[in-house]
Design brief:
With 252 residues, the protein is α/β, with parallel strands linked by helices. It is built from ten helices and ten strands. It binds adenosine-5'-triphosphate.
Amino acid sequence: MTQKITARDVNVFYGDKQAIRNVSIDVDQEDVTAFIGPSGCGKSTFLRTLNRMNDTVASARVEGDIRLDGENIYSKDMDVVQLRARVGMVFQKPNPFPKSIYENVAYGPRIHGLANGKAELDGIVERSLSRAGLWTEVKDRLSDSGTALSGGQQQRLCIARAIAVDPEVILMDEPCSALDPIATARIEELIHDLRGRYAIVIVTHNMQQAARVSQKTAFFHLGELVEYGDTNNIFTNPREQRTTDYITGRYG
Ligand SMILES: Nc1ncnc2c1ncn2[C@@H]1O[C@H](COP(=O)(O)OP(=O)(O)OP(=O)(O)O)[C@@H](O)[C@H]1O
């Protein structure tokens, strides 16, 4: 297993309030890793440390060591725009730009200078939409607005947008929580298809979803990483009482 991300002794504060306590974790390249835990336990906060999205929150402070392929992502030399292309993110609520489907996907490659001319850009757009499982549905209406798509299609468009800049890691923060069961199933299938090409980390409230899509599961509680291991073990044979309590529905 190749470790794509290594995090050591990570603490996150919002002002005086500590949201993450001494979290250390390795994220494997080949796996889908799920972050689970009750509301407010810090899953999203920790996820957002992995591409420095917390930089956008004025009160947030991150301590500790987080590396992408061994490179310290909090070092002064790190180009955050570049980092967020390498570590893409998909949010809870689909958030396409109010632009055409084509532009939603083409925007990133264009600003990162990934395409040499229109034909190459067209190729990236087609490949990204195909990988996101959306191409056949939208290929005849690429100039329609991204916001006119259904919620599930919008979320796949956001995944295509992340894919378009050729990321190494995709972070997903409850990507299905605004979607119906059919759209959810499509995203879960898509996560299966994308596995291996990208390291994927998904925050989910839904334990069945974590069990279905992930190979590794991390259980967070009150800002701590209580237990981390193979998804099968976490759900069938957890080591910690707090994990047992959570997966058997005693809280959360
Ligand atoms: N921008 C912020 N400013 C201040 N406190 C915050 C901020 N964002 C999160 N918190 C606090 O940090 C803690 C962890 O929140 P976080 O959203 O990471 O948890 P979560 O496990 O993802 O929860 P949920 O599942 O409800 O989204 C909570 O106590 C929350 O109130």
